[in-house]
Amino acid sequence: MILSRRTLVAGLALTGLKTPAFAQSAPEPQRAPIELIEDSLDLPSAVRLGHAHGDVIMIEYFDYNCPFCKRSAKDLPALLKAEPDLTYVLVNFAVLGAPSVEATRAALAYLQVYGPEKYLPLHLALFGLPGSVNGERAIAAAERLGGDRKRLIEAADTDRTTQWMKDSFKLGNSLGFVATPSFLVGAESYVGGMTLNQKRAAIARARG
Q1: Largest CA-CA distance found in the chain, in angstroms, rounded
Q2: Closest Cα partner for 61 from 174, 160, 142?
Q3: Domains of the chain (ranges, CATH numbers)
Q4: Which of 145, 155, 74, 141 is nearest to 113 (CA)?
Q5: Phi, psi of 36, rounded to the nearest 5 degrees
Q6: In the predicted model, what is the mean pLDDT of the chain?
């Protein structure tokens, strides 16, 4: 384990409420409170991809040990290419146990040290790993991208990282996100996995 016992235990408090279920079919859209959408966009841990000021904003709440999130990440480059006017926002939502808490700490440390413009390669690399992704494996993946282990571990173990995780969890819970991944598209929420075509249909629906 690369992370301190103190910060790991603090992070584990995030996993106590629910174990997410996985959607087997396209989730139904639900109207989302605009203030919670705005709060999601204001999260300091949120990573914006694609168009800086897109005509539609799509926010994904994900966990690095979620198989449907892995599928979503695999589709992400194709989605960004197919939808050049889309703003896509990543929100770490560590809800699947201790390995996810550790992996998210490492990922958020990378975000803090190297900035959002360098985050996507790590995001794709973590989802490209076979099996369970924990903190050690996440740090190793970050090192392969040029990350500095010492700086990353120090950032992972800070109170700021813990607070970022708690803020995301609180918002996801308020939105009723009991499955990963879950999405906000325009003014609607979708709880559960979506294929590339389903995402594009939701984006078209948001454009109206």
Answers
A1: 49
A2: 174
A3: 34-193 (3.40.30.10)
A4: 155
A5: -75, -35
A6: 91
